[in-house]
Amino acid sequence: MLKKGLLGQVIQHLCCLPGVGPKTAQRMAFQLLQRNRDNAKALAEILLKALAEIGHCQQCRTLTEQTLCEICADPARELALLCVVESPADVWTVEQATVFKGRYFVLHGHLSPLDGIGPDELGLDALEQILAKGEVKELILATNSTLEGNATAYFIGELAVKHKVQASRLASGVPMGGELEFIDRVTLLHAFKGRRNIE
Amino acid sequence: MICDAVYEQAGFILKQRQYRETSLIIDVFTQDFGRVTLLAKGVRKAKSKSAALLQPFTALAVSYVGCGELKILTHVDVLHAALELNGLALYCGFYISELILCLLHQYDPHPDVFNDYNCCLSTLASATALEIEWALRLFEINLIEKIGYGLQLEYDFMTGLPIDAAKNYAFNIEKGPYEDALGYLSGVTLQVLHAKTLYDAKVLSEAKLLMRRVIDVYLQGRPLKSRQVMNQIIKRTHNV
Q1: Nearest residue of A to residue B58 by CA position?
Q2: Domains of chain A
Q3: pLDDT score at B240
């Protein structure tokens, strides 16, 4: 039920944000309207502008206001490496955490047979076109380490074989700073299966 | 209303979906209580210990409490190591999960179907393409039988004569096979399906056609999403 008055509506709509309940929304609304009116105006304007202008990068499909995102447009990036991730948020995470110097491809989801999400819904044609060009030499499959994420990685791995591109999957196992005693059994099992020789 | 408190119940996760910020709603197929829907609170947090366990095709021991339709998951542990399903076997795993979701009612216990599901998954994990197909057909026949729609595969229902391996048959889903020179089922296929032994590629393709029609009838027009997705996947990976 929509609350009465403009203030009520602002509070109601702020609740659409993740992690924001009615109480926090109320605080936010009063902060913006009482003490911070300039910032509120700037926020409203930038949100409208972002909504109008931000779309998907033509090449990697991450969020950007340009036709090509900064990463795809950067000539210093290696063409031979392509990292496949599930969401634009994952691109940010990988960018911040690693020294990966290749390019990305965003799936916007994962294969989910029980929800009817297959290759067609994920728009894997675009990925196949990139692979068919022959520039990419290694495909890094950085989908989530869930069953659906693995299924997606496996399927894209098969596409890579079809296009004669080497594919690799992110390792899974013991996290940094993780003490064996506190690690769950499934993760530990993966860690043992994926153990490496010491070089 | 009856409140449940169930401890260490063997079960498999059939389907999971995200709920709010950190929780999951999971459909679990339990051994003694059938299909139940559970709310797993706070499992999608960074430090969650059960996120890695709550995956489909892993034999779990789940404990839950609750009064309404949606119970609360209180504890989960792995019963035995997860099965390694890959490629075709994995997609088939999703398919049998969807059959259970569509054909079994919630809170309707089917320990025998649970055992079949468990066996079928183990077969999928270590089988060739033909063996996988046979495992699926067996699972389908047994499932249909155990939910009360067992197929009559022994006699020609019009004449009452046993099935003749040399003849062709058509199939009435409620009554059984009847002789028809242009029918899509050979007598051999019916005999094999009845005895649940020995098979070859021809038997498998006929059995697939039969079971697909039977299942479609009992789904009452609902499409199987995993089947559609599997078709897309096969089309993409095999057409070069």
Answers
A1: A186
A2: 5-53 (1.10.8.420), 56-169 (3.40.1360.10)
A3: 45
